Amino acid sequence: MRKIQFEENEYLVMAMFEESNRLSTMEKIEEVVPFVEDDPEIYPLVMTTIEKMKCISDDDFKKMDLEPYKQETEEDTE
After folding, report:
1. Are 64 and 14 in contact (CB under 8 A)?
2. Distance between CA atoms of 3 and 55, rounded to whole angstroms?
3. What is the mean pLDDT of residues 49-60?
4. Residue 1 in contact with residue 32, Cβ under 8 Å?
């Protein structure tokens, strides 16, 4: 089985919606699909992220360090 390689933007998507485990994170990402279906840049990014996440194990997901990809929100800066 080949190792799944995530691109930087896919890490950003996972970090943005990170939950306690892989399946919960995938569910959170899937919730935005109806809102981004018409976006020619974001929709493919979201879909490839979900597809790649389906191909990794829960263990592999736990080992990912998504912290560097987390973006500061306006709430964080207040």
Report:
1. yes
2. 9
3. 97
4. no
